[in-house]
Automatic annotation (TrEMBL):
Pathway(s) the chain acts in: Nucleoside biosynthesis; alpha-ribazole biosynthesis; alpha-ribazole from 5,6-dimethylbenzimidazole: step 1/2
Family under the similarity heading: Belongs to the CobT family.
Catalytic activity of the protein: 5,6-dimethylbenzimidazole + nicotinate beta-D-ribonucleotide = alpha-ribazole 5'-phosphate + nicotinate + H(+)
CDD domains per record: DMB-PRT_CobT
EC number: 2.4.2.21
Gene coding for it: cobT
Keyword annotations of the record: Cobalamin biosynthesis, Glycosyltransferase, Transferase
Biological process per Gene Ontology, one example term: cobalamin biosynthetic process
Protein name per Swiss-Prot or TrEMBL: Nicotinate-nucleotide--dimethylbenzimidazole phosphoribosyltransferase
Taxonomic source organism: Baileyella intestinalis
Example GO molecular function: nicotinate-nucleotide-dimethylbenzimidazole phosphoribosyltransferase activity
Amino acid sequence: MSELTSLISEIVPADFTAREECQKHLDHIAKPLGSLGQLETILCRIAGAQGTSEIRTKKKCVIVYCSDNGVVAQGVAQSDHSVTSSIARSLAAGTSSVCVMASSCGADTFPVDVGMIDNVPQVIQHKTANGTRDFTEGPAMTRDQAEKAILTGIEMAAKKARDGYEIIATGEAGIGNTSTSSAMASVLLGLEPEAVTGRGSGLSDAGLERKIAAIKKGIRINKPQAGDAVDVLAKLGGFDIAGMCGTFLGGALTHTPVIIDGVISSVAALCACRICPDVIGYMIPSHKSAEPAAIKIMEELGLTAVLDCGMRLGEGSGAVTLFPVIDMAAAVYNKAAVFEDINVEQYRRLS
């Protein structure tokens, strides 16, 4: 039994009783039943993940996996790997967009080199390889490399849980990763590449055509097995996707809720659920990505993203945007008056 298989066998479903108890308390707060909408769903998901209705939301972080993708050689992106390195340096300095956003709401950012071409010593070092291979010429990585990067994500989530972090957000930085994520989504969802491929950071019509053509070629050459998510990841994915996939698995192992960001994070979430379906109970959706694959993945997972800001920044920024929303919802949960406090009979559900 591999280390990954052994760890996956330890994952159990989220605590349904804790979710029910959380909802009961929400219904006891002096407000119309269900009036916080999806915020109540988020709180209940946190309770289920943590295994208690006494939810903990104070200490939060975002883990940003940095890696490079060989498929960039096919002209599927506007930039090259040097931009990944620049972003990683900015993440390490605490000046990137997601760092500033996280800091503004008291959260921490942890950038990880899980597979960059360049070396940026200021970030956490877990390099699997110096970038993936071009999947139009063969598998992006070996299966062993895919599992190693997944294990890195599990390790990162477990470490942050040991350090007392109560909610983890997923993020990524890597030129070309909307191509890898769209390719994986096409196979995992059984849809044509045209249905799940968008313009990423702003491709022209010609660039979009190259991107779709590269994805089709990669699928044709590598013949990924849709029923084996690790095979799909190894043949078409990126180390950043693998790291985030592992973080979702690690969150489930440590009973720590993990927030899904945009399309790349969504593909990682889908991959984790295909590896271990029980992981779904530990995931929290954040924002509606403009990429078509993300919309279809949310439908596949049965999740509803609560924020619709038109964001496409990456780095985990959409997931971090949910942090203050969670804080406000948790404040109501923990501090708002209940019906007895205002001498009003508790509302009852009529259906």
